Amino acid sequence: MDFDFPLRKIIHVDMDAFYASVEQLDNPELKGKPLAVGGGAKRGVVSAASYEARKFGVRSAMSGFLAKKRCPELIFVRPRFDRYKEISTQIRKIFYEYTDLVEPLSLDEAYLDVTKNKKGNPSASLIAEEIRAKILKDVGLTASAGISINKFIAKVASDYNKPNGQKTVPPEEVLDFLEALDIRKFYGVGKVTAERMYQLGIFTGKDLKTKDVDFLTEHFGKSGKFYFNVVRGIHLSEVKPNRIAKSVGAERTFSDNLTSEIFMLEKLENIANELEKRLKKYAISGKTVTLKIKYSDFTTQTRSKTIAYFIADKSLILETAKELLYQEKLKDSVRLLGISLSNLNTDKKDKKPSKTEDKKSISVQLKFEF
């Protein structure tokens, strides 16, 4: 299969039920039991669920009450983020043994570009196997991986043989793989977008491929061009070793629902204090303040305002957040508030590959091995 764009060897590594697996690793008594990492059954939200809990339909972002209802034997464990970061650091050290082109997405997943790698191994699939085996041996946890020509396909593929498995989609299988793919499996297509696609008769990648870019743009805005490209195997985003955050935020879930804006002001001040600390730690400032409100029925609303200059001071952030809070009447009692800052001073345009780089990549495609 010939492509007129650069082919790379990309691995997406995704740890299996990471937070829950770390808790089971540190406490063997929890192994094999349905486990949820989160705040508890009364007011908490599930941050992560073990595979034993997932069999009962327990999922991340689910209320602790509903999770306990689905799985009465569910065990709740408070999150220990310092420990998760410690384990994540160990795992990333393993990644760097193979390549410096590592782009972490979170504590438990990352992209690796192994087109050229420190081991001189031409097979991305074998490298993924080595990495997963080394993580199991050195850390004691299992990981899954997806391997393909770009980040999009590698991300989708990593979910195929979970847990503790991997899937490779080599260049000659890319288009068939994407055409057969259920539209819900496309990374970036959420529940709402999937429903809209169903209404338009789009159920698989093959259906998506029949729609031209104008049709997709009309129905899905800027995302339309993205869908048009990825179903054709086109995703030129490079693995960025120094991935820059697009936003910085802080939020709090309350033990009792808040019913008035007046009761929320003190909470917002505490959140703004925490956000300021994070911004100062990394010398980041931004122009867009977003207030996140999660109501008692778990619906979420965001309100944003962009100002003309960069800010990082808690007083200015809080002033804008208060303005957003009073922007319109609350529709219900509130269980969570959050403030984030985006449009940061770190934002940069992605570098596009030059025509020379494109030609060089095309010339070596016949020797490409997965």
Write the layout of secondary structure elements.
Layout lengths: L9 E6 L2 H9 L8 E4 L7 E4 L1 H4 L9 H7 L4 E3 L3 H16 L5 E5 L2 E5 L10 H15 L4 E6 L2 H7 L8 E3 L5 H7 L10 H9 L5 H5 L3 H8 L2 H8 L16 E12 L2 H21 L4 E10 L4 E12 L2 H12 L8 E11 L10 H9 L7
Parallel strand pairs: 2-4, 7-8
Antiparallel strand pairs: 1-6, 1-7, 2-3, 5-6, 9-12, 10-11, 10-12
Brief rundown of the structure:
With 370 residues, this protein is α+β, with helices and mostly antiparallel strands. The protein is built from 14 helices and twelve strands.
Task: Give a description of the structure.
With 370 residues, the chain is of the alpha+beta class. The chain folds into 3 domains: 10-16 and 82-173, Alpha-Beta Plaits; 18-81, MutS, DNA mismatch repair protein, domain I, CATH 3.40.1170.60; 247-344, Dna Ligase, domain 1, CATH 3.30.1490.100. Helix content is 37%, strand content 22%. It is built from 14 helices and 12 strands. The protein has helices spanning 18-26, 51-54, 64-70, 81-96, 124-138, 151-157, 174-180, 191-199, 205-209, 213-220, 223-230, 261-281, 314-325, 355-363; strands at 10-15, 35-38, 46-49, 75-77, 102-106, 109-113, 143-148, 166-168, 247-258, 286-295, 300-311, 334-344. Helix 10 crosses helix 11 (223-230) and helix 12 (261-281) runs antiparallel to helix 13 (314-325). The radius of gyration is 22 Å and the shape is globular. The two termini are 14 Å apart. Mean pLDDT is 88; it is low at 349-368. It catalyses: DNA(n) + a 2'-deoxyribonucleoside 5'-triphosphate = DNA(n+1) + diphosphate. The record marks 19 as: Substrate discrimination. Pfam families: IMS, IMS_C, IMS_HHH.
